[in-house]
Structure formats: structure tokens, C-alpha cells
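Per reviewer request, we include the raw input and output of the structure prediction for the construct analysed in the revised manuscript.
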Amino acid sequence: MSGAAAISADSKPRLPRGVHLKHDETRGEWLLLAPERVLKTNAIAVEILKRCDGIATLSEIVDDLAAQFKAERAQIETDVKTLLGELAAKRMVDL
């Protein structure tokens, strides 16, 4: 969790070269594809990852998700930081 706390509100997360979010039509699920790795993603992770374009800041992503889902901003921020921290540790997101 300490890694998640270290993510700055000004960070501009993005998927690194070679990592792609893709919808598998056959299985009807979203996958995060990286060289020699495949991660199944849930609906929440998909919404977060779709916004990781290297342009939007973490704060903007959290604001957007909180508005879209009418959820408490603090909880959204915690969830986003946790997910991105875990994916960054696996080198599947650049912060």
C-alpha cells in the first residue's frame, strides 16, 4: 500500500509500449495484454485503464470516475491508486 500512497495527484498514468487493453469478443471480457502476460480485468479496472492515456492526471481520472459513478471521491482515489500501484509494480502501467 505504501506504493499506492506515493502516487502523485499530478501523475499521468499510461500503458507502456507493448501493453494493451483489449476486449476479447469471443470470451466477452477485457484483457490487459503485455509481452508474455495476460491479465483478466474487471469492469472497474477497465474504466480506470481506459483513462490512462498519459494526458489525464490521476486527479482528473479520479474526478471523472467519481462523477460518472456518483461515488465518494476518497474511495475512488484509494481504489485507483491501489490498482495503478499494483500494475506499476508489474510494469504494466507507467506513472
